[in-house]
Batch of 2 targets.
Target 1
Amino acid sequence: MTGSASSATPMLILDGVNVAFFGKTILKDVSLTLRRKEILALTGESGSGKSMTALAVMGLLPGRMRATGTLRLDGADLLSRTEAQMCRIRGNDIGMVFQEPMTALNPVQTIGDQVAETILIHSAANRRAARSRAAEVLARVGLPQDRFPLGRYPHELSGGQRQRVVIAMAIALRPKLLIADEPTTALDVTTQAQILDLLKSLVREEGMALLMITHDLAVVSDMADRIAVMQNGQVVETGPTRQLFARMEHPYTRQLFAASGHRASLPPQPSAARPLLEVHSVSRDYPLPRHIPFAPRQTFRAVDNVSFTLRAGERIGLVGESGCGKSTLTRAILGLEPVQEGQIALDGAPVFSHGRPNPEVRRKMQVVFQDPYGSFNPRHRVGKLITEPFHLLEKQPGAAERKDRIAQALSAVGLSPDDADKYIHAFSGGQRQRLAIARALIIRPELIIFDEAVSALDVRVRAQILDLMADLSRQYRLSYLFISHDLSVVRTITDRVLVMRQGKIVEDGPTGQVYTKPQHPYTRQLLDAAPRLPDIPPEMRHAPA
Amino acid sequence: MTLWYSRNLLLGATLSLFFVALALISFVWTPFDVESLNIGAKLKPPGASYWLGTDHFGRDVFSMIMVGARTSIAVALVAVGIGMGVGVPLGLTAAARKGGWLDEVIMRGNDLIFAFPSLVIAILITAIAGPGAINAIIAIGIFNIPVFARLTRGAALSLWEREFILAARVCGKSRTRISVEHILPNVTNLLIVQGTIQFSLGILAEAGLSYVGLGAQPPTPSWGRMLAEAQTMVSFAPHLALVPGLAIVLTVLGLNLMGDGLRDALDPRIRVTRT
Amino acid sequence: MLTYLLKRLTSLVISLLVASLVIFLVVEVAPGDPASFMLGLNAQPDTVAALRTELGLDVPRYARYFAWLSGMISGDFGMSYTYRTPVAQMIADRFWVSMPLSLMALALSTLIAFPAGLFAAARRGSAGDMGVMGTTQLGVAIPNFWFAMMLVLVFAINLRWFSAGGFPGWDDPLLALKALTLPAIALALPQAAILTRVMRSALLDILGEDFMRTARAKGLSARQAIWRHGLRNALIPVLTIIGLQFSFLLAGAIIIEQVFFLPGLGRLVFQAITQRDLIVVESVVMLLVFAVIVVNFAVDLTYAAVDPRLRART
């Protein structure tokens, strides 16, 4: 490694960095500085240019994009380097960690080889030395040799463990700068906390500078020494974390902050209402693949003896980490899959009767899914898309009534009746989620199930959709079952929370109580792991969203 | 880039349409009668009166190419029809019943057919029913079935995972109805592109079968048989081997270019299988 | 790994059984009695009956199927109706022409396609890529048997580098290989064109994967990343195509034998068809299908070697 400058000079300097592509500005005049042992968080919504900034530093901009301006690492100009010189810098002086641990590793190579490769590329070390260093680094990131030998393949590890391998590859040569692009977005909240702790300790102990990219302000406030907020390819505000949160000079920063902590105002819950959805001792088994041909199949119990009752007008949250069985339970309630044990009934009638879903019941229940892009058939117009639930009616409405109800549903979710003739690609993610709600509303159900319905949305859009949900619940006296991995969102939109773990419901109580006085240790663990926004000064609470 | 793609499409469509036109015109007109022999004019090289020369019986090669186009195109087209007509519903059914016994049976059946190349099927059919153009159609058609079944199933499976299909199921629509209403329209582009490719492969396969005598029989002219007859004369009448071969190459090339162009125009993410 | 092997092995045996049953039944429905066909129109009924007994045609169908099956396992394919000689003997010699020809072509097309596909993918969009893609577009359109005739015209008739056909036998392996060279090239080049395209698109797909970006972030150059991480992953789809191609090469070999007058399975089976020697047809078809199924089984095993996920999961 080259002799490093004194710790007073910044490790990374971006000064007036621009990236344009076919006349479209990707990054505009981005200036940042980052010191040794410092964590700089780059935050903003999708498309704000956070990831592009990271790729510009790495010299890995897609296609033929080029960065202009000044970009210095430890005093050395990076933009004037040739590609061959950049190859010597990447992995050696700069390490990078990506968002998707499931796909970031080569599936056909062992983790030991993949970590050792970083060392072999950049140093004269022989294979044995590289592997022993790889073992050291893996142990450093929490994958000790006795439990995670070098010969493991990525598919044998969980998402969090894979992310540790990616981090090991990035820090194997103790780079001066570590870039982490949404490193915990794809992970569960408890795993997220562990990975964030690991990154913090690496910065402290190995003396790296960390450029952390995240959309999550709560993560930012937990982690960062300094923050830069980006919007449309520009840095709109930057400063030390505390100071920035205290001042929030730019309106966009204020909007982001307000939206992140947004609380929808729910109408009061009707008291002593009739039970609407009754889930009684439900279990769901999945057959596992056979290990020996024709051997009897083993099964995996995804939902294990789950019971709860949702009363009319109630809004219940179902939270849990990935693989806890919440999606399976949702599908069972929707009558998409049969259950092996127990009953599910809506308004007293079974969801599944005689091996067939019951249309009477389905009419009273609709669903909104997570992915705003995958929820609609791209080949149909909106009018046809949102009237699909009419299929559940015994008598199809006539043309005039149909048009009327389309207009009503679209207006109810804040869209225009004229939108009925458009195709889905004309709408943004938030608008599509509105359309999904319109589709659910159109046959006037009593219960709407939201399956991670706001998880894919940017914070400001998410706040709007949450408000819309609260409004509709008031207007149409709807009951909600709100499934999410995100504890903070569930808190704002529910009266009661169920916490699910390994197929079982471990805690069930009023939302306020569960969040303030959790009974089950797992709930406590989840709440402790969830990053929190700093307390918002009261005058910021109702900033324009 | 778009220009390059559309150029592919244009060139491919022009070539293919040229041969389709030749085939259609041959129904009403050919320069010479392909069934009358004229030993006096045998083995003439390409020239003014016989544009592409004559064969050892004095038949006009160009006229035979025109009528042969008819055989090639008809066989390949019907074979694609069989493949799609049977394979697509099978693929849709298998995907709708993913993991069920029906899926298993359809997929194992597919694997089995893949073990029987068209030539082997043609050999079997000819052995029991005698040679003829129908054999070629059936043999190539049967082989097309698993191609379309697999393609449709694969594409349909990923669609079944999409949330708009879940939404349709929540609305109480049956699997069959969802397959027709939601899955099929979303795989048509794929089918058009693969259909073009299978069409071109069908022309190649038909030529091969006729060449070894398992396809169209005399007096029906076919490109493959013209090549078989030309083989012994290749040293002194090379045009007899060159012309039908080039006809095949150009037709297949045209169809492939058209398939690639269509793919790029309809949906660049489509992957075709070509084996 | 063991369970994977066991699973593939089970499906191999089932495929072979089902295929043999299909072939047997198809041939069974063939109109006409081989014995009366062989003896001609004026044969005495008792002579026909005697021949039927000799050929084993007088027992029930299922018994014949099992006799055929168990015979094949022990290498006894029955008697040719026409030549009254063991079918196994007739097939064996021919097999050692067709099979080496297909394998040579397979090796050749793989040897051409891998570097060509790699070259085109690494230089995507360049003039070199365009050139490779244009050539393959043409290669895909050429019927292999016509290409074979053109090779004969140029290299055998005009240049006289090779003989125009025939096969000297394996007594002198070098001469035998020389006789198979032109046919193998004719067979391999169109397949190589297809395989090149598959290789290129598989590599391009891999280039878009996250782990390729990870490889670049480690400091590998674009080319090193393809070599070390792209190639092995791209091999998975490419292997599938190679497995499928083998059946086409085998069928192609049978056609191409006609161009070069090679004494392979092709000539045997076409002769047998005209002579209605159904037992020979049946046996050759079974052998071809057997070869295809076994090669695809081998491909499945190679998958497991390439992809650790397969070894573990099933």
Note: Chain A is about 35% helix and 25% strand.
Target 2
Amino acid sequence: MTQGLVAINSWTFLAQMLNLLIQIVLIRKFLLKPIKEVIAKRKAISDEELAVARKSRAEAEAMKAEYESSIANAKAEANDIIQTAQKAADTRGEEIVAAAEKHAASIKAKAESDIEQERKKAVNELKNEIGGIAVDLAGKVIEREISEKDHQALINEFIENVGEAS
Amino acid sequence: MDVDITGAKILAEINVPFLSKYLGVWQLTETLVVSWIVMAIITITCIILTRNLKVENVSKRQAVAEWLVELVTNLVRDNTGGTKMDWLIPLVAALFSTSVISNLISLLGFRSPTADLMTELAWAIIVFILITANKIKSMGILGYLKDFTTPIFLMTPFNILGEVFTPISMACRHFGNILSGVVINALIYAALAVASSALFGLIPGAVGKVLASIPILDVGIPAIAGVYFDWFSGVMQAFIFTMLTIMFISQAAES
């Protein structure tokens, strides 16, 4: 038993409508949805990897900047240290030189005063001795009695002359 | 020799309680059974294609599945402009695959479900419902009704006819192409059988009688006609029906 070549059949019509709707659901469930999910998953993974790469790049750049700044800091610090040390050394050297100069000056001053003292002492000693010698000599050369007064005046005059001569 | 070209075979008649009062006896036709076979083929293919999907290192199977999905997605998006009509994708995929497999299943000796007008009419009515729903959605019910009176009121009957004949023309276009293939195939088979028996009947004696009773020319030669009527026309009509569906619905949504 067959249908006509062009037949109207409400059952077939309704069933074919239903079949198409079922086919839509089946194709969605078994083809479109799983493929969409896997593509979305792939996209999520690549997005995530991209984000991670971006982040690590930013981190690397930050680290590089930090490293460079710390290097620059270290250099500046080293320069500072060197400068401070140089300055300290300079000051210290100057101090030492100044102290040495001062010391030398004091030694020189002391030596000078010692010399002066010694000189004065020697002059005094010489005065006394020469006074005695002069008196003796005078006594012996002149061999005459002179008054103590004349005597003393003579001595003083002599000493004065010696003092001027020395 | 008589050539008898008929519609689908009726395999069973089932009296469904209650529903048969309105729709008549349910005739289980070849159309329905082959439709179910087509649906099974499509669904099993989908399941096989999407088995054990992976994110990386995709198999050839998965590559084909992704390519198909991308193809139908791009077809819809290129013709509707953007992603706002993505809900059409499952419909388009189902329509195209069902249509192509239905048209080509005649190569396996089945009667195409698409050689039954009811199949195409059912699809076209679903498309028509979607067209109308989208028109009403974008214009409002009053705007939709008012659209029939444009450009002048006199055009109203023609506009209504144009609207109603959209699904009918879609259905008949597809059906007519497939039916013509069925008819011409039947004619070619019959003609070649006659030619075969006439040709081999020329051989004298018992050999000629035996050979003349076998339609030898029917082997291979109809396949040449099948290249156009089954392959080309089958794929072409599926494509046309799908494209019209996309066009009409996207137009309706934009009106």
Note: Chain B touches chain A through 51 residues (CB under 8 Å).
